[in-house]
């Protein structure tokens, strides 16, 4: 198959998320002196290779040609290096969607408090400076970044269905002398179809080059109905046991998805007569124990116009998917401690959502310490658990209990324990895991993103995935292109 004639530009460089999943940062070079940066994220987990994490995150690449930073979405592994970028002298603009512009300062504020300083005045000043650099643009509209003698560089955001505000980016460069357009798509993180609250991403019409994520490039998710059924079963079980379901969850995205699903379940249970229900859902308390998560809930609610059609329908029916009657939010540390001891002592069925998502820290740890040793309770994982975290250990214990189901759902053997804060805690609670609430497209979705384009890219760069995921997606994509007789050069950088 003939590849079309190659031109010297555009070119691509990756300053992160090439050899791993985190630290997303990609440079698009339209010409020698006109560059864009797409995302500027933090390295996390095993991608942190230097003992001094500031040293790894400091911006050491040349930023003089960078005309703008494009932010695909506000997850920390996509925007966490922003303070370092500003420290390196970056003066904007930061182009992102309207919801992202609303959410970004909250995420950065939290990151500053955790990783940099407790000095409120300094934080306020920095946030004011960042807000000044933000240029929110509506979805689906071209925005001109640069127009000079040689080129016109435009960008357009399309909904990515990953978290609220997420976008994939189309970058169109018109080379005036050659009268040539070149269109690149940066996928950012793509969502799975049928995610609660968010419209599914639609494939672009086409492009010349595609830079695509591959987090789940070698995996297939359960579908939403399956996920909901399992979530329902876990909570029903807790209701029967009069126990608490502890869900470790990061504050943005997954927490809101789970709340949305729970509102749906409580609503459905209310519609049927109490005698049809084996358990009383109206007694279920849903507790969001995280000041940050409640802040995000608030902003998510403000951003209703960006919800999908199904969520809009719930609103029209007078329902409140993210602020329903059974929902309680816990703010102060004092209130948090009270709730922990109350739930551990009394037998009141409850669902608790608290950070961190991998139980590696945060308020969820206090729940685990108080309740892991009681078989009435349950820990439910809804996201990826990295090696070395308490979450990963608990899943390992669960998968050692019963063979044959991959550890996704199993009972816990007696006398297993995990060390938390230096204390060995016996694990007698049920451990469950539901895949799919990960807000990432799986292999099939990623392939469909390409398949559904009218004009397929001739150059594809696979990024943002573990090695096996990247290679698996490359092989599948190669097979797809060959079968369709379309020329495609596939690069796996890093
Ligand atoms: Zn993300």
Q: Can you characterise this structure?
A:
The strands form four sheets. Strands 7-8-9-10-11-21-22 form a seven-stranded mixed β-sheet, with helices on one face. A seven-stranded mixed β-sheet has the order 14-13-15-12-16-20-17, with helices on both faces. The chain is globular, with a radius of gyration of 23 Å. The protein contains 14 helices and 22 strands. The protein is of the alpha/beta class and 494 residues long. The chain has helices at 53-57, 76-79, 82-87, 98-115, 120-133, 224-241, 254-271, 291-302, 309-316, 333-345, 364-371, 390-401, 443-451, 467-484, and strands at 11-14, 26-31, 34-38, 66-70, 94-97, 134-137, 143-147, 151-159, 167-175, 180-186, 209-213, 244-248, 285-289, 327-330, 350-354, 378-381, 409-410, 416-420, 423-427, 430-433, 459-463, 489-491. It has two domains: 11-219 and 439-491, 4-Layer Sandwich (Metallo-beta-lactamase, Chain A); 224-433, Rossmann fold (3-Layer(aba) Sandwich), CATH 3.40.50. The structure holds zinc ion. Zinc ion (ZN) binds at residues 73, 75, 78, 162, 189. Residues 73, 75, 78, 162, 189 line the site of zinc ion (ZN).
């Amino acid at each position: 198959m003939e590849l079309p004639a190659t031109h010297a530009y555009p070119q691509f460089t990756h300053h992160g998320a090439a050899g791993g999943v985190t630290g997303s940062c990609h440079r698009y070079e339209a010409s020698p002196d006109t560059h864009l940066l797409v995302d500027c994220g933090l390295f996390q987990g095993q991608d942190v290779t230097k003992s001094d994490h500031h040293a790894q995150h400091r911006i050491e690449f040349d930023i003089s040609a960078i005309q703008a930073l494009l932010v695909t979405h506000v997850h920390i592994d996509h925007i966490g290096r922003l303070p370092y970028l500003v420290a390196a002298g970056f003066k904007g603009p930061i182009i992102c969607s309207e919801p992202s512009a609303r959410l970004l300062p909250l995420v950065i504020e939290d990151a500053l408090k955790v990783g940099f300083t407790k000095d409120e005045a300094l934080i306020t000043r920095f946030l004011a400076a960042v807000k000044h650099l933000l240029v929110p643009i509506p979805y689906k509209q071209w925005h001109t970044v640069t127009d000079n003698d040689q080129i016109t560089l435009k960008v357009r955001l399309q909904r990515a269905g990953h978290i609220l505000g997420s976008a994939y980016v189309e970058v169109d460069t018109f080379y005036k002398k050659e009268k040539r357009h070149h269109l690149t798509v940066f996928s950012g993180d793509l969502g799975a179809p049928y995610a609660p609250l968010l419209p599914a991403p639609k494939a672009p019409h086409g492009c010349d080059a595609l830079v695509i994520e591959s987090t789940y490039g070698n995996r297939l998710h359960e579908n939403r109905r399956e996920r909901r059924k399992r979530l329902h079963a876990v909570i029903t079980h807790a209701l029967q046991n009069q126990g608490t379901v502890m869900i470790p969850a990061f504050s943005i995205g997954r927490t809101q998805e789970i709340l949305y699903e729970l509102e749906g379940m409580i609503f459905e249970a209310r519609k049927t007569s109490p005698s049809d229900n084996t358990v009383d859902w109206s007694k279920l308390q849903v507790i969001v124990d995280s000041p940050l998560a409640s802040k995000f809930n608030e902003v998510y609610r403000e951003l209703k116009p960006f919800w999908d059609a199904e969520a809009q329908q719930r609103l029209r029916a007078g329902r409140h998917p993210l602020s329903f009657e059974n929902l309680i939010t816990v703010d102060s540390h004092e209130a948090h401690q009270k709730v922990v001891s109350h739930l551990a002592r009394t037998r009141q069925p409850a669902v608790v959502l608290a950070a961190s998502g991998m139980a590696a820290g945060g308020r969820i740890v206090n729940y685990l310490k108080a309740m892991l040793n009681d078989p009435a309770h349950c820990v439910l994982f809804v996201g990826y658990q990295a090696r070395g975290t308490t979450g990963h250990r608990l899943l390992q214990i669960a998968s050692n209990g019963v063979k044959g189901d991959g550890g996704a759902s199993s009972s816990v053997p007696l006398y297993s324990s995990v060390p938390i804060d230096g204390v060995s805690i016996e694990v007698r609670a049920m451990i469950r895991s539901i895949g799919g609430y990960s807000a990432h497209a799986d292999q099939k979705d990623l392939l469909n993103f390409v398949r559904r384009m009218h004009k397929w890219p001739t150059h594809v760069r696979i990024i943002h995935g573990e090695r096996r995921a990247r290679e698996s997606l490359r092989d599948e994509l190669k097979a797809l292109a060959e079968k369709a007789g379309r020329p495609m050069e596939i690069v796996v950088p890093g």
